[in-house]
Each structure stands twice: as structure tokens, then as C-alpha cells.
Amino acid sequence: MAYFRPPGPAPDPQLVRELTQLQDQMRNQIRLEPPPGELRYIAGCDSSFPTPDTVLSVFIVLELPSLGFIEKVYHVGPVPLPYIPGLLSFREAPNLLRAYEKLRRQPDIIMVDGHGIAHPRRMGIAAHLGVELDVPTFGVAKQRLTGVYEEPALTKGSITPLTDKNGELLGQVIRSKDKVKPLFVSPGHRCDQATATRLTLACLRGYKLPEPTRLADHWAEEFKKEIR
């Protein structure tokens, strides 16, 4: 996700407490399990902030395993919350849900530009969306948010575990292209690590990012031109 991080006063402590409690409640609903049935359609989603007060969210849908393009949608809305570290999903999820409503083809699984359970409270944007939609989700992030890992080998397809300080598996660190910085892949909801890793690798087409999130990012830039 492309975050806008404005300077400003500290967030309201009461708001932080309320959102943290809600995040804890949502975390208790997460199920880490293989997605049911055949995965025929995969969505990718991304959000960006064209202005400090505006969030633009994109969904694209591809067919598996060919990655043939099915559709693309977007939604623009007001930013509902100030920037609060660890609670960014509440800033993006409402607008992502509005974009999702516009899809004609419902995906079997969603690849989210961001984290799943590889989050300090195990509730990144991929987990948040999965619980809200009750759809299998996983996260593919460009930067580590929490956890420790050893750098994977420099060749494409190299993988190392991402764990917390107690050794609990949070995700996997995947080299998606030779000699580029790795990706951080973690399940969100109704998805397991094996599926998240398999689909990430299956969706690589010579770029650092897998096609669902790469194309969502691409179309976010294109759609920005329409709203200027």
C-alpha cells in the first residue's frame, strides 16, 4: 500500500483504544486454513492517497493459472482516519470495501498489497479485509513490519521464514526476482501459508511484484489521472 504519512498531533487516545479493541475482536475471527474448493479467480488490490484527504482503492481480477485479465474497478473516497501506526487498515479498508462492491466477478482469493498476520497484533490489511468480506486473503508486502528473518539467497524463489521472537511463523520472505529486495508474504484469513506462498510464486512474471498487486498498483496510477 502507498501510505500518506502526514505530520500532525498525536491521535486521540480514546480512538486508539477503541480501534485496538476492535482489532483484537477481529483477530479472534481469523482462520488460517487452506481455501476451500478450486481457486479459479484471484484478485489483487491496492490503495493510494492522491491527496491528504482522499484515498483511491483498486481491485483487479485475473484468471488462474493463466493470469488472464478479467476486470478492474476503483473507488475514490474521503480518508476516514488520521495516520495511526499499527491501525492503518482502518484507514484503507472502508474504501477498499466500496471498490470490492463494484466487482462483477467475485474472486476466490484476494492478494493484498500489505501484510496479513505479519503485523504486531496479527491484523494487517489482508487479515482485516478477509474478516470483513469472509473471503480468503493473503498479504504480499514490500517491507517488513514485524518479525525476524534471515535474508534469503539472491536467486528467484529463495525463501526463509519470518517469525516472532518466540519462533511463531508469521510469514515467509520470498526472493521474487534475482538480486532484488524480497517480499514478505503472510496469510490473512481463510488461507494458509502454503497457499499464500504457492500463489505468490505462481503469479510472478518477471517483475518483483506478482501480477495481481503489480497490476493493481499500475491501475491505481492510471485511475489517478481520471480524478485530477
Structural class: alpha+beta
Strand order of the largest sheet: 3-2-1-4-5-8-7-6
Q: For the CA atoms, what is the radius of gyration?
A: 17 Å
Cα shape: globular
Q: Tell me which CATH architecture applies here.
A: 2-Layer Sandwich
Tell me the helix content: 25-40%
So how many helices?
A: 5
N-to-C SSE series?
A: HEEEHEHEEEEHH
| CATH class category name | Alpha Beta
Tell me how many strands there are. Answer: 8
Quickly count the domains.
1
Low-confidence stretches: 1-7
CATH fourth-tier homologous superfamily: archaeoglobus fulgidus dsm 4304 superfamily
How much is the average pLDDT? 93
Organism: Hymenobacter amundsenii
Cofactor: Mg(2+)
GO biological process, one term: DNA repair
Protein name: Endonuclease V
Model description:
It is a single chain. This protein is an alpha+beta fold. Strands 3-2-1-4-5-8-7-6 form an 8-stranded mixed β-sheet, sandwiched between helices. It has one domain (13-227): archaeoglobus fulgidus dsm 4304 fold. A hairpin with a 2-residue loop joins strand 1 (41-51) and strand 2. The model is unreliable at 1-7 (pLDDT under 50). The protein is globular. It has 5 helices and 8 strands; from the N terminus they run αβββαβαββββαα. The protein has helices at residues 13-27, 89-101, 125-133, 193-202, 211-227; strands at residues 41-51, 54-63, 68-78, 109-113, 137-141, 159-163, 169-174, 183-189. It is found in: Cytoplasm.
